[in-house]
Specification:
Elements lengths: L1 H7 L12 H12 L6 H13 L5 E8 L8 H17 L3 E8 L10 H12 L5 H17 L6 H13 L6
Parallel strand pairs: 1-2
Helix pairs in contact: 2-3, 3-4, 6-7
């Protein structure tokens, strides 16, 4: 992971026994106690991993619908409120978006195709719904981290980076 960080500046990883082992325990406890949808346990799982990274701002995309943990928007909204509230009480600037998972985002399904579609989006192309989500979430992060005066200004900066190809660069 350190080599990836040194070479690319970022990496995507998942929970393992060597990386955030306590999160595995939380997941296992949720499974055996039938509390997979427990707001406090989900909140602890999400925020514990983010806070240990030393973040100052976080944007979470809380999913709801047929393919999500929460089937309806009201339950997802409760998680979003909890994440924002607990995060704020711990000194983290948090914003949350609610996204329906009743249909795929974009036009592609499957890892390789979704990566290709993400690259197209970063180069100013790709489906409008993916672009809208990227600019909304990215704009919120720029605003929360102090790199834009408002969420709308942040979204405009993200859109400009997509359009001029600098996002892909």
């Amino acid at each position: 992971m350190q080599v990836l960080l040194d070479q690319a500046g970022c990496c995507i990883v998942g929970q393992s026994e060597q990386l955030v082992p306590a999160d595995g325990i939380l997941y296992a406890a949720r499974d055996v106690t039938a509390t997979v949808d427990s707001l406090p346990l989900i909140t602890a799982s999400i925020l514990s991993k983010k806070l240990v990274e030393g973040l100052s701002a976080l944007v979470v995309d809380v999913k709801f619908g047929g393919a999500a943990v929460f089937p309806n928007q009201e339950q997802a909204r409760e998680l979003a409120k909890t994440l924002v509230g607990v995060g704020a009480s711990l000194g983290l600037r948090v914003a949350a978006a609610l996204t329906a998972m009743d249909k795929p985002l974009g036009r592609c399904v499957g890892h390789a195709l979704e990566v290709e579609e993400a690259l197209l989006c970063m180069d100013g192309a790709g489906p409008p719904d993916l672009r809208d989500l990227v600019t909304t979430l990215g704009g919120a992060l720029l605003w929360l981290s102090g790199h834009a005066g408002t969420q709308a200004q942040g979204a405009a900066r993200v859109a400009a980076a997509l359009d001029d190809g600098s996002a892909l660069g």
